[in-house]
Design a protein that fits this description.
The protein is an alpha+beta fold. It has 18 helices and 9 strands. Strands 8-7-6-5-9 form a 5-stranded antiparallel sheet, with no helix packed on it. The longest helix has 16 residues.
Length: about 425
């Protein structure tokens, strides 16, 4: 099967998922406060059932240990991920073109699934494809990154391994930079190390910030890799006026970024507010647990209205378009990304959706998301109300960099 066939399997999953868009709620156990935190998820069809993969047409080989025989057993064992993982380990490092095609077909059956052993299987399957280093397998890895949000970290790690072992391609550099916000721990270290080997350099402040954040999410080895990459990208051996005991440390790069880009969010990991009712560490396991699968869409739909999400966001045909459109969110973001956007909305804000503070010539202050049309400026304020101002009456505009989605959702989900 050509690459178009594998791409078709992945796109089939996306199209099927588009018909299953839903607003789900997560019911939090009593130990987490016995509340309902609403969030927006789209259930990918492949999360519940595998993509249909044509059966192998070749006759079963006589040698049960041959790559073809192993791959046939692998394709038949995808629904038992631990057994399938053992079979992946039996594959030789180099496969024939036909066997590489069989491996891609078997991987397509995983879809977007992560639980019950699928996370490890997903990672090992994509690493095995990257070791093949053929054009079709590399193109398939890119398609997985673009199509299956939950597997982007695995795809990026596989591409990074290929880049370090084989050759550096500009398209892979762009993918790895885009992957930085998604990566944790070892995967972040691998990608940071690989990016250092590319001739391209990241000059945009947003990219440099993501390198610092990725380093902060890793161990000491990953932080060293982040610091070395920043030194390579900026041409600085260490940040100017480094004050730590180890010049060039990730802390020094944080200070450098804060001083150099005071208009951007600081390069700091988001932290739970002291009085927050919802904690990241408590909620993250829930979004990948049974609570999401059993969630009632109608509850999340009610919260979407009551929390005034509709005043800023569009979902299907409902809502406003002043904020990001949430209709296909689940196709574009992994669950942990969506949870972070709800709990820490100010951590990463697209430029067009930044909160602005406007001061009029009469001294009135308006704060919110701004939309300019003709001679007027509309401000969508935190209370959901809109204020329309004449452009000529605006005396000053500043960025605020602060949003509060979690607070509004919590109030709507649990009025008490």
């Amino acid at each position: 099967m050509g690459l178009g066939g594998y791409t078709g399997l992945l796109r089939q999953a996306r199209q099927k998922a588009a018909s299953l868009v839903m607003i789900s709620s997560i019911t939090i156990p009593a130990r987490c406060g016995a509340i309902v935190l609403a969030t927006l998820f789209v259930r990918l069809a492949v999360a519940d059932e595998p993509a249909s993969v044509p059966p192998a047409t070749a006759d079963s080989p006589a040698d049960a240990s041959s790559p073809q025989a192993v791959l046939q057993r692998l394709a038949a064992s995808i629904e038992q991920p631990r057994e399938a993982l053992e079979l992946v380990g039996q594959l030789p490092r180099e496969l024939t073109a036909a066997d590489r095609a069989r491996l891609r077909m078997a991987d397509a059956a995983i879809g977007n699934r992560r639980g019950d052993g699928f996370a490890e299987l997903s990672r090992e399957m994509l690493l095995a494809l990257a070791r093949q280093a053929d054009d079709q397998s590399l193109a398939y890895l890119h398609e997985v990154f673009e199509s299956l949000a939950e597997r982007r970290g695995d795809a990026a790690e596989a591409i990074a391994n290929y880049a370090m072992a084989e050759r550096r391609r500009a398209a892979d550099w762009r993918l790895l930079v885009r992957a930085l916000p998604l990566l944790e721990s070892g995967q972040a270290t691998t990608v940071l190390t690989a990016l250092r080997k590319f001739p391209e350099r990241g000059t945009k402040p947003q990219w440099q910030r993501e390198v610092i954040l990725a380093g902060l999410r890793t161990d000491e080895t990953g932080q060293v890799a982040a610091a070395e990459l920043l030194s390579y990208w900026t041409g600085l051996k260490s940040p100017p006026a480094a004050e730590s005991s180890s010049p060039g440390s990730i802390a020094d790069w944080q200070a450098w970024f804060r001083d150099r880009h005071a208009d951007l969010p600081p390069a700091e990991l988001p932290r739970d507010a002291e009085q927050a009712k919802h904690r990241w560490a408590e909620l993250l396991p829930l979004v990948y647990g049974d609570a999401v699968s059993a969630a009632e869409a109608s509850v999340g739909e009610a919260v979407f209205e009551k929390a005034q999400c509709v005043k800023c966001h569009r979902f299907g045909a409902r809502g406003e378009a002043m904020g990001p459109d949430l209709t296909s969110t689940r196709l574009r973001y992994a669950r942990r990304e969506m949870l972070q956007a709800i709990l820490f909305p100010s951590h990463s804000i697209a430029e067009q959706y930044e909160t602005m503070v406007l001061v009029t010539d009469s001294g009135k202050v308006f704060s919110g998301v701004v939309e300019a049309r003709g001679n007027t400026v509309t401000v969508l304020q935190a209370n959901g109300e809109k204020a329309t101002l004449d452009r000529k009456s605006i005396d000053d505009i500043q960025t605020s960099g602060s949003l509060g989605h979690a607070r509004w959702i919590a109030r709507a989900a649990n009025p008490r």
